[in-house]
Amino acid sequence: MAISKLNSWLSIAANSDFSIYNIPFGIFSNGSQSRVGAAIGEFVIDLPALFDAGLISETVGRAVLDTDFLNPLMNLGKPATRKLRNRIKELLTAGNIELENHPNKINILIPVFDCKMHLPVNVGDYTDFYSSIEHATNVGIMFRDPANALLPNWKHLPVGYHGRSSSIVVSGTPVRRPKGQTKADDQPLPSFAPSRLLDFELETAFITCRGNALGESITTAEADNYIWGMVLFNDWSARDIQKWEYVPLGPFLAKNFASSVSPWVVFMDALEPFRVKGPEQQPEVLPYLKYEGEKNIDLNLEVYIKPENTEPQRVTASNFKYMYWNMNQQLAHQTVNGCNIRTGDLYGSGTISGPEKGSYGSMLEITWSGKNPIQMNDGSERKFIQDNDTVIFKGWCEKDGVRVGFGELRNKVLGAY
Ligand code: MN
């Protein structure tokens, strides 16, 4: 898809994730109560203030903007959100003076450094998938059988599990190292201690803006009407707890102590120009999983580890385009049995690993279960994440000089209580 060029009267750095092509939504505060904002360059647009200036009153009601979560806005659906976002773009476009010359402009465009970002969505239900063939293969080789790394179901359905929404936190929230049961291979009994193998999982997540009735399903074609936007997602994982507890029902306490999201939800319209074809699916999938069009996204992803008092160091660079199962297939599979979804549900992609070393999406894979530690610039090494490390995710699309990004997802790990 060709991108028509836009210029803004506002000065926006060429490498800003929050270009005029993006306009993501989030929840912010600057001393007063939290409310809906949109990001542009180094500013947050205060949307209730923009409404009060009379500049978006033709789009949505004020109540959905003056609220703690994006759910009421999302619940209006994609056409209403699109109208609001397109109007904001129009107000920012060079030549439009409605906002540029507005007497209250200084109270509408708030410097991002004066803003605190909050959890953008009140997440009802949370599902995590396992949709990267490279990740599933790596884990299968390490934990089971290199000759049969993928389990027999993997290429026939997007494997997933229901996670826990109460512990989903926003970027900036410290993550406390969990304690739990682990069992060493050479010990007869389990012991209880802080996890020694704390890991990140490089993921994205999509958020839904409407529900289906219990008993009804959503097709891959209909899925686009339900998928409102995306965030970066860190599915924090304690590998030693996971290894002991996960048989036979899957992850439990190894995953539900924290999962973190980036604060700005990028609306799907902003990502459309970066759509690419997904990998060929062989064997052929069942009819309900077939889809039309380009459903993957060329979205660059990076992870940095920042040890205390040193600079961040990049430990991996991957891309969302590698995903074997796309979001439409995931949502169709989630609902094919009649399971109902709701506005504000969150769907993690699963760890996004690329085909090469250097593009793996977890420390488990990067260090191959601790066998090949990463050398850090400060002389230390990492097999997994240590206390006081900050883990930073970045994600952005770029094409023909147009950049649409997610900003950062960053969380510092604190020692166990
Ligand atoms: Mn995961």
Describe, in plain words, how this protein is organized in 3D.
- By secondary structure, the chain is α+β, with helices and mostly antiparallel strands.
- It has two domains: 94 residues, Fumarylacetoacetase, N-terminal domain (SH3 type barrels, Roll); 289 residues, Fumarylacetoacetate hydrolase, domain 2.
- It has nine helices and 26 strands.
- The strands form seven sheets. Strands 6, 7, 8, 13, 14, 16, 17 and 22 form an eight-stranded mixed sheet that branches. A five-stranded antiparallel sheet has the order 4-3-2-1-5.
- The mean pLDDT is 97.
- Manganese (II) ion binds next to loops.
Do you know the CATH topology of the largest domain?
Fumarylacetoacetate hydrolase, domain 2
**Portion of residues within helices:** 10-25%
Large-scale geometry: globular
Name of the CATH superfamily of the largest domain: Fumarylacetoacetase-like, C-terminal domain
Residue-averaged pLDDT: 97
Count of DSSP H/I helices? 9
Q: Kindly provide the name of the CATH class of the largest domain.
A: Alpha Beta
Small-molecule binders: manganese (II) ion
What percentage of the residues does DSSP assign to strands (E)? 25-35%
Low-confidence stretches: none
Main β-sheet: number of strands, strand sense, barrel status? 8 strands, mixed
